[in-house]
Amino acid sequence: MLEVRAIRKTFNPGTPNEMRALQGVNLTVNDGSFVVVIGTNGSGKSTLLNAIAGSFRIDAGAILLAGRDVTGWPEHRRAKVIGRVFQNPFSGTAPSLSIAENLALATRRGKRRGFGWLLRKRLLEKFRERVSQLNMGLEDRLKDPIGSLSGGQRQALTLLMATWLRPEVLLLDEHTAALDPKSADQVISLTDAIVSRERLTTVMVTHSMQQAAQLGDRLIMMHRGRIIQDFQGAEKKRIRVDDLLARFKEVRSAELLDESAAEMLRRVYV
Fold it and tell me: What pTM, to 2 d.p., does this model score?
């Protein structure tokens, strides 16, 4: 469903602030697979999601969706087939519009949008039915502005909107990081239920080792713009939080050794 071929992205090239965010990343995600991506700050995990979504042009490589080369597609065109939930609970929705109005826009993804739906009682009933499955009591508040809701409620609705029309790929960018623990647990449970029920091809970035160990059928670890670990199948099922923490410690230790060696060489030869 998703194929990333040797993609590269450098920000601010040729300047003191140059950052090689992606350095030849290769990744193939099968239809229905749930891939979790973890990594240290600056490892390139969110940049990878942005590259897939088309938020910027990559410097090299290719991105394919369902066999189509979308490398040259702008973000708005990819949005027709990609569902996305951001870290900020207040992104991805129109705060001044009601819950029902936001859901109506989601039902028209990739099509001409309007509010002729207001006269369609059947669609409102469908909204009520689907929203009730969130178990947040929001089915009786469809006329409320979505901006008046809590972060957890809004993120749950954003997830519902992103998956209303089954996307070819669902991208989740640390979508519980800004929530309190209780709300985060609710949204993660909803995520797991929706992805499993719909068999959605999903790529989720997270900073939570607990989520990384428990969710998905595949786990990718990134560091300095590269994939350094890829856990799949039985190996993924065996992964525990302590295993991931130990791996991060190894990476950090190796990085410190590299930095020490580089400094020693500078002192000797420069």
Answer: 0.87
28: left (phi over 0), alpha (psi -120 to 50) or beta: beta
Longest Cα–Cα distance of the chain, Å, equals 78
Higher pLDDT, 62 or 42: 62
> For residues 34 and 2, is the Cβ–Cβ distance under 8 A?
no
Pairing of strands 218-223, 34-39: parallel
Per-residue pLDDT, 217:
95
Q: Give the pLDDT score at 220.
A: 94
Cβ(207)–Cβ(191) under 8 Å? no
- At 81, the pLDDT band (50, 70, 90 cuts) reads very high
Which of 119, 127, 137 has its CA nearest to residue 160? Answer: 127
| C-beta neighbour count of 66 within 10 angstroms | 13
- Please give the distance of CA 113 from its chain centroid, rounded to a whole number: 25
Distance CA 149, CA 69 (A): 39
Which residue in 239, 175, 235, 238 sits closest to 203, CA to CA? 175
Residue 49 backbone dihedrals phi, psi, to 5 degrees? -65, -40
Burial 139-174 (b: 16+ CB within 10 A, else e): bebbeeebeebebbbbbbbbbbbbbbeebbbbbbbb
Give the residue from 200, 111, 187 showing the smallest Cα distance to 154. Answer: 187
Residue 29 sits at the vertex; the CA angle it makes with 165 and 213, to the nearest 5 degrees, is: 95
